[in-house]
Amino acid sequence: MKAAIITFPGSNCDRDLAQAFAAAGANVIRVWHKDSTLPAGTDIVGVPGGFSFGDYLRCGAIAAQSPIGAAVRAHAERGGYVLGICNGFQVLTEMGLLPGALMRNAGLKFICKSVELRVETGQSGFTAEYAAGQVISLPVAHHDGNYTVDPETLARIEGEARVALRYTANPNGSVADIAGVLSENRRVLGMMPHPERAVDPVLGSADGAAMFAGLIGRMALA
Amino acid sequence: MKARVHVMLKDGVLDPQGEAVRHALGTLGFSGVKGVRQGKVIEIDLAATDKTKAEAEVRAMCEKLLANTVIEKFSVELI
Description:
A: alpha/beta
């Protein structure tokens, strides 16, 4: 599996994400935001966490319009996989690849801690290695993770079982405790928690490793 | 020509920052504050001289980048 990990000015989880994919057995290629094409044969694009462009204007707004953005959109539109974590999730909503938006946390504070999440569906490459209903622990580190979506879209997302992850104790005010949401074709996932920071017991949790393993498994079948 | 863009959260979208400001105003003794909404003002210096064209262009900028129309509304004023 070939994973392309994007770096924007201000990304700070790009290396961790590359490491997590590599540890799972992926062939990882790092991509710069000014590149206008993805490496040939890219199976999955990783949009990492951080503070792209200093969070200016809105979190992820400027990164979403960067040259590599058009290539990521084209990749998603032809059915390619995309994983956006934290700031990456914000970038994907700003690009319109995922519904909704991430607003300032309801409590207004930056939240940096481990949280419990319930895996709501195993029906995606990202969650195939988890059991639906399984509770896992992953770290969050964000100021703008308050997921917001209009009631009609929320009903559609819920109806199509596109909520991948839900907080067991909502830390940031997200509607319906949503921590991660899938695209209609279930190949784009945006999530605020950091699976790439939980891929080895030495990091406090290895609960994120199954996400990368699941993706590798899915690509191997393809 | 200059354009001034106001970006505000849509009605009905909870504004945690505005709420915090409202609380702080209450703490300062301003008891009559019923609500606070916080937004952005963006000023753009334009080369255009045609008002209609300029407004259309700035509205396109808002749709594409300056506002996230999922949660925000905007207004354009030429000055």
